[in-house]
């Protein structure tokens, strides 16, 4: 193997190692001690500031999805698709990572604060502003709107 090919191969390995190292998370116990990441369960983690959802598999970022605005909530569904709610709307990512807009408020500054899949395939969405819960179909049609009373403190 020539020196150039060898150096190229070493650079590729180093870049791959650096990239893999960036994908690892650090976990700490309540006492502030480092927790072994291989003991972490698989989980979705939302990053409000960066507008992302990350799927952690044994403490390593396995997949990342963007949210529509600051990230609020995420659900991994049985078919390996993902629901992601950001303050500006709800996106559905299918198993091929294709993004589809499920819902977005028509008026601003309304904000979405959560989404939750329901057993019948609909999605429950909490909308700030008018203070309503919406049941939305996979096509984005509203089946039910529940107005919430506003309590003053």
Strand fraction equals: 35-45%
Q: What form results from the Cα inertia axes?
A: globular
Order of helices and strands: HEEEEEEEEEEEEE
Please state the average pLDDT score.
Answer: 81
Task: Work out the number of β strands.
Answer: 13
Taking all Cα atoms into account, the compactness measure Rg is 20 Å
Residues in helices, as a percent range: 10-25%
Helix- and strand-based class? mainly beta
Instruction: Determine the N-to-C terminus distance.
Output: 75 Å
Please provide a written account of the structure:
- The protein is mainly β.
- It is built from one helix and 13 strands.
- It has one helix at 3-23; strands at 27-28, 34-35, 43-47, 52-57, 60-66, 71-76, 82-86, 89-93, 99-103, 111-117, 123-128, 132-136, 142-147.
Short précis:
With 153 residues, the protein is mostly beta strands. The chain has 1 helix and 13 strands, in the order αβββββββββββββ.
Element layout with pairings:
Elements (H helix, E strand, L loop, with lengths): L2 H21 L3 E2 L5 E2 L7 E5 L4 E6 L2 E7 L4 E6 L5 E5 L2 E5 L5 E5 L7 E7 L5 E6 L3 E5 L5 E6 L6
Antiparallel strand pairs: 1-2, 3-4, 4-5, 6-7, 7-8, 8-9, 10-11, 11-12, 12-13
